[in-house]
Design goal:
Length: 314
């Protein structure tokens, strides 16, 4: 792999992003520090066009991504895949996807339309700029294969995982996986809007695929070990929920009793409180991915975080 951009970013601003070549025509665009709303993207090159996997949260970050694309190819972005509906992966659609066909899972379009720019209200101090989460024009249900130049790109919907509308972008010949937020190397998983059980199912699928390189939705590049690490976290999460529910504890009380444990070194440990709401919900008969009161759950996340809203460097 070869890297362009600063080897050691001095600050987690837009200019600190780096582009990493993973295979011929396959690049990851990585943004430190990888925290809330600071996401990664993929750049796929064909002889006469470019495809993107996700955009970015803010206008400034999306324009830096656009500059990275221009540094790799003189050709326009003709295809843009959103891995899920969250704004930190789709707010740049209107900036980078003007001449592109936007592709996503069918629920991604629905959820994006419902969410709109709501994410901006959670962090009003962020300079979002002019962002426009243009909706996908082409949707699929289970699997879709795209042929982008010589690249075979498989879009896989694994079922509820990080959200109910995740897309795994798999390049089988290169064994490169753009996982979206299903995998977050070095960061705490976030399944509030998805499923614990569904995530575990997805990890089994990923293990069968056998990726060589994993580009998570946030954080540094990883290998297949991130699958095992994520599985250990989710199994512990489910045990805490089962024991906490039996003991009559609320999700917040269970989070405070157990803490992050062996995963304390991961960023965003406050997600434990929200994740436990999802794990508790799955102890009942409701279908996986049944919507929860996200604002109430986020309130517990803030309470667990000593009453402070988590910081976003977007």
């Amino acid at each position: 792999m070869t890297t362009t951009g600063p080897a050691t970013p001095l600050a987690p601003g837009p200019a600190s992003a780096e582009t990493v070549a993973l295979a011929d025509g396959v690049h990851a665009w990585l943004q430190p520090d990888g925290g809330w709303c600071v996401s990664n993207a993929g750049i796929l090159l064909a002889p006469d066009r470019v495809a993107l996997v996700d955009t970015a949260a803010t206008e400034a970050r999306s324009r830096v991504l656009g500059a990275a694309v221009a540094g790799l190819s003189p050709h326009p972005v003709r295809l843009l895949v959103n891995t899920h509906f969250h704004g930190d992966h789709s707010f740049g659609n209107g900036i980078l996807g003007k001449d592109a066909v936007l592709v996503a899972h069918e629920r991604t379009r629905t959820e994006m339309a419902e969410a709109g720019l709501g994410l901006t209200g959670l962090w009003p101090g962020v300079d979002w700029g002019h962002v426009d989460p243009v909706l996908p024009q082409l949707t699929y249900r289970r699997r879709l294969t795209l042929h982008h130049g010589d690249l075979r790109v498989e879009l896989i919907h694994p079922g509820p995982a990080h959200t109910t509308n995740d897309t795994l972008v798999w390049l089988p010949e290169q064994r490169v996986l753009f996982a979206g937020d299903v995998l977050l190397p070095g960061a705490t998983p976030f399944v509030l809007m998805g499923s614990v059980t569904g995530s575990l199912h997805t990890l089994r699928l990923l293990r069968r695929l056998g990726p060589r390189v994993v580009v998570g939705g946030h954080g540094p590049l990883a290998g297949p070990e991130v699958i095992e690490e994520t599985e250990r976290y989710l199994l512990r999460l489910r045990r805490i929920a089962t024991e906490g529910h039996a003991a009559g504890l609320t999700p917040l009380e269970a989070a405070r009793r157990h803490g992050p444990g062996p995963f304390a070194h991961w960023s965003e440990p406050e997600r434990l409180a929200a994740n436990l709401h999802r794990a508790y919900a799955e102890l009942g008969p409701a279908p996986l991915g049944t919507p929860l009161d996200v604002l109430a759950c986020f309130g517990d996340l803030i309470a667990y975080n000593d009453g402070e809203l988590p910081v976003s460097h977007a």
